[in-house]
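Budget justification note: compute hours in this period were largely spent on complex prediction jobs such as the one shown. Inputs:
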Amino acid sequence: MSERGAGFGARLARHRLAVVSLGVLIVLAAACAAAPLLAPYPFDAIDLAHIRQPPSLHHLMGTDDLGRDLLTRVLYGGRVSILIGVLAALLGTGLGSLVGSLAGYFGGRLDNALMRLTDVAYSIPTLPLLIVLASYTRATAVPMALIIGLLSWMATARVVRGEVLALRETAFVEAARGIGATHGRIIVRHVLPNSVGPIVVGATLAVGNAIIIESSLSFLGLGVQPPTPTWGNMLMDAQSTMATKPWLTVFPGAAILIVVLAVNFLGDGLQDAMDPSARREP
Amino acid sequence: MLEVRDLATAFHTRRGVVRAVDGISYTLRRGESLGLVGESGSGKSVSALSLLGLVPPPGRVERGRVLLRGRDVLAMSARARRAVRGRDIAMVFQDPMTSLNPVLTIGRQLTEGLRRHLGMDAAGARRRAQELLDMVGIPGAHGRLDDYPHHFSGGQRQRIMIAMALACEPAVLVADEPTTALDVTIQAQIVRLVKELQARLGMAILWITHDLALVAGLVDRVAVMYAGRIVEHARVRELYARPRHPYTAGLLRSMPAASGPRPRRLHSIAGQPPDLAALPPGCPFAPRCGYAAEECRRTRPELTPTSPDAAVACLRWREVADDVGGAAGAPGVRRPPPTAGGGEFP
Amino acid sequence: MTAPLLEVSDLRVHFPVTRGAWRRSVGAVRAVDGVSFEIRAGRTLGLVGESGSGKSTTGRAILRLLRPTGGRVRLAGTDLGALSAAELRRARQHMQMIFQDPYASLNPRLTVGAMIREPMDLHGVGERAERPRRVAELLERVGLRAEHARRHPHEFSGGQRQRIGIARALASGPRLIVADEPISSLDVSIQAQIVNLLADLKEALGLTYLFIAHDLSMVRYLSDRVAVMYLGRLVEIGDVGDVFERPLHPYTRALLASVPVPDPDRPIPPEAPVRGEPPDPAEPPAGCRFHTRCPFAEERCRIRAPELAAVEGAAPGQAVACHRAEELRAC
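Corresponding output:
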């Protein structure tokens, strides 16, 4: 309903930090998306005459071991990293919310089965599984995101199940049953909107998590292959030269940090914006 | 015994200052019982907590004196106040389910106060604890000192709370809605118990409740609170026979009787309880009052004596007294009260 | 005579008590243990009892918010237990509940208008386009204003929220309303407002109420007939005037005697009309469930549970479950 949207927008606008973060994210994402237009050089343009240069007028962020322009690689890398981060987080949180709400709402044998499944998924060692899965798929962004998402839904599932269990006993859910709502409607309209808090928190944490997992994969030689840059693999490449050539670490690292922080602040703002009774000033 | 002078407690919240208690005064003599009646937001519970210095932050007692046997409790140091609490003035709270510590046996909870305030030794305290349980009517008291609160029912827990409060034979007992959470038959038992104990021990009792029917047969005097102030007080018979404040009169009229002819329509007080953070100028009851005049909305009425024993804070109390000649529903109601203008809601 | 709108026959709700990690069933709490009554269209039955009596559970079992363990509930002739899940959902249109807690029974994320509209959408009441108007009408009917539809529950006081709950219950056009302690959580000065509203609505819309409460004076005001429950069973039922003025069951008498009256000359009587505490509902006494507290209990009360029956010399519509009802009527 339009009135609900208006309220939401107004409440979000009150959180200056969230609004700024949203702006930053939009600008960053747009810049990375427009990398082919903005980047001064092609991302794989090797220039052996200018390797390991600190930031200068020609290369605003300096160059790497092969003389490639870092700014270009950061921009291109963002496309992959942001995509993986957001997609994996959405997938993981979505799947986790689904499992958690079904388990919590229906209880009984379904709950048992789903929770045992979650326990099993939890106990699988992530890295070896990632390695196995990664070696079977094409090492591009979307399959990577899918894999990472598939392995991060469990925490959200647990938390959402807890929320739903509690909400199931509330009077307004009973009232919803009383007026004749179907289970699906109750879950979507009454239960989930009231468990939004942990879901949003889980999603924002998942973004950062996904980017970090991706970089681990890159380190192991899996995941997105060179010369395609991702912030993760750029960080890994620069590990040995952190002290001597800080720009190789600082710029991709800062990029990851900015995205993760911005997503977190935006998450805070979203949480409050979705709650009509929230009166907190940020 | 207990004299409260101009007690005021406020909560400083982001929305503004909430004057939960805005200058109340009363006296309680030895062996006397006072009923403090009000609804949610009237400030009655906060005033009770203020007596003992138990108001949680962001609440603060802003002014006033609480003289217990001549000594000002509020002016004491925290340590002195702790000594007074439990020994000279004790409190029984509303919810027996949560007022007892679930992980300690009741024997331990009973003897704690005894040992602390009266310096008894373990054996002596235990004997006294058994006496207390007997006194409040817990059957088989001897074996039950080592039981935990969850072994008892709600009514029994409340009795235990009373036993704890009476352990050191305080001069004043403050009971904050002690029977609200209990069934009506159990409530009757607790009321009987308290009256009996009062007669036996000669305590002064402050009985705080929202139930005007309950205090009628229970106390000597009644004080009615609204929006943090006492708006009327009188001896109990006088209050019920001849209420002088429109709020008191409204409350009495809106109680349907359990016997006698059924009224065609229940009299109700229009509007809602006031928002303490945003009180209108003038009398806080004016928006809901059928007698409200222009001057009522301008000046806040002070408590004025109407007889040696009674006072009311209302500019138009004489008309209220004229309209209600008898108790609720009884013959003697000469004119129905005017209805508040402007519909039910602001 | 037309059939009653609501017929409850031998309703039972037992909650299993389990123990251990494997959830072995070691017994049952017989919260409702054989309750039968009828309500004719347009009338109000008050159901009273203290905590543990099973009155709220009865209300929920009738509306099938809980699954009964036994017995039958018929609404306008239809056996609710024989309906499929989809049919039951559709049947809910005709029977609604007003809940006790006005704070917990409204979804904080929905606007008031959305809440009231939901039953209309679910059951296809009226044309889509005119539903907002119907919501506005309902709001005004319960004493609020049309523009309140845009607001959220937290902006309202307890009494107003209860009005919203009432509007929601009326939205689908039900015939039966089960009001589960609708005024217990409200301030005293507001209770009379809501009771007046319920009475007005009953007149205006021809509603039938099951009014569950523990406040006897309000029950007396609003109901035509009253039923008294104790530990899962009905102990007395009759027209409100008869039961309140000439109660037949010792428990009813004890209840009435314990209700405080706002008259200083009539305090709570010093002698207890009833002894002790209510027993544990998981282990109810044998025979008559009230016998452990009854001042008139005899040997036969311990052995055999009495049935609800009319009593010689009492009002025709009144029935009581007590072995000694006839003798006690005299005193």
